[in-house]
């Protein structure tokens, strides 16, 4: 059965793209198309039509529902292309330790950090893990997230990595938003392999990847390429192994140090390189013209007090990028994409146009979902945010820490 809904009197219809665009051009980031005083038609789960109110011809048209938005605005739902949303417990003690002077890296060295979460996860049964993750997913959907990527990486053993990935698979089954799963076995070296990292990498390559692929549990492969974690060489080995099983790479690089991870990831045609709080001229040169999408995570910078990635410099170099939340229990216990957009404007000094595009169409690109979501385009999914009655889209990042959301629709259904 076909169901048709029309929204009328939209103050600003934000993020319009008349046709599907596959290019990774800087205009995708810089230019935000807006139709003022607009209408939008949804048919079932997709966008059917849109335009200016004064060009709307209602003759011969039948709708199941006519919703007068009365000067509210509409934009594409956020596409959060980097999260670790499936985790067990929380780590607020580390938060307090940081307030009292320890750094994120010191806490990890003392056995906290990722290993702390891995221990909690090992002791949590899958149904409990699923429940807490589903709760967080619903929460971010209400804050406007309409597609999301979720990583494993708190398992660090075959059994527990699979536990996380199965929880993600269950989320895929039970929620209607597009979800991409990423295998991040190389998130940290577990204690029992502390003096034998290469043995752990063997386990990832010989046991984890084949088993995970056999169950079809992952779309991408990730590595935390960083001093004291995994080297560029380690990353290369792991990505190569993943690619044999059709897992493309989305990697953590340049969070604390620039060690050549970007160059290698670009060379290996990674879908995205994420973090980039530290960025050298060499890194920028490798990103230029490549198909790999830099993904910046400003709420991580806020929370653990590290520099913000230089989004402004990327724009000056014509390199489009995505913004994502990095939602995880250690460095970013928040999945609020509205805040991410505001922080990017405030601290990276990028315009609201670029920030909104980075969190919508570029986020879609970073999950290879650009053909189905990320913009107001005929034929794309009806994944939209209806705002409250705000004066303009600039108000979204301006009113930082708030959401201004009236309602969220995912695949044509209200969240
Ligand atoms: O993206 N940097 C590595 N991984 C996560 C944080 C992991 C954690 O602290 O639990 C991140 O920031
Ligand atoms: Fe992360």
List keywords for this structure.
globular, 4-stranded mixed β-sheet, 8-stranded parallel β-sheet, TIM Barrel, 415 residues, 36% helix, binds N-(iminomethyl)-L-glutamic acid, alpha/beta, 16 helices, binds fe (iii) ion
Note down, in words, how this protein is organized.
With 415 residues, this protein is of the alpha/beta class. It folds into two domains: 4-76 and 374-414, Urease, subunit C, domain 1; 79-365, Alpha-Beta Barrel (TIM Barrel), CATH 3.20.20. The chain contains 16 helices and 16 strands. Strand 8 (179-186), helix 7 (197-214) and strand 9 form a beta-alpha-beta unit. Helix 5 (126-142) packs across helix 6 (158-174) and helix 13 (337-348) packs antiparallel against helix 14 (352-359). The radius of gyration is 21 Å and the shape is globular. N-(iminomethyl)-L-glutamic acid is lined by residues 113-114, 117, 224, 252, 255, 300, 326, 328-331.
